[in-house]
Write a structure and sequence with these properties.
The complex is a heterodimer of chains A (115) and B (111). With 115 residues, chain A is mostly beta strands. Chain A contains no helices and eleven strands. Chain A is globular and about 45 Å long. The chains are: A mainly beta (115), B mainly beta (111).
Amino acid sequence: DTGVSQDPRHKITKRGQNVTFRCDPISEHNRLYWYRQTLGQGPEFLTYFQNEAQLEKSRLLSDRFSAERPKGSFSTLEIQRTEQGDSAMYLCASSLKTGLTDTQYFGPGTRLTVL
Amino acid sequence: QQQVKQSPQSLIVQKGGISIINCAYENTAFDYFPWYQQFPGKGPALLIAIRPDVSEKKEGRFTISFNKSAKQFSLHIMDSQPGDSATYFCAGMDSSYKLIFGSGTRLLVRP
């Protein structure tokens, strides 16, 4: 399969624990995005990378959230000291900017439940 | 303000009918407007997209109509099928390439 993959698909954790999610983009895509989606809402932007450089973060991303993309390939999103409000679907998307086009392809998401 | 407003929140259409979902945006810097389809438990999948220099784009049963002066765009699904039942999101892309999504429309197509 050549689509965006995310691991794990589901994560249940207790409040205060740290969690880490992984995203593998489509091969050769130079951009990688993280979004958060809560029930009944559209995805909200968290951060994005062009190759290994993190170019923008949303104000939603508190200091408990951090993301990395070592070597410009896969990316990880870590949430420290999880809170119940962090329960959501975390979506990863990747794109290959060519000319005016920057079509983002989404992965299946990681559903986080914080108890 | 980068908000994208989407309506209706939910829509029920009979098989073979036309489904229409509307979106309005505020940020005139948006230069790319995709529509995504999302099934339960899955990530959003790109359906169709348009740039503001075009007033209409059609791909199969799906058509985007775009009104730049009104800052509005809509998705029309012709000959709606039960398999089209899903949540649809409109979005605008800003100059930093992040997507700003609407709140979604849950479509149910009855057989």
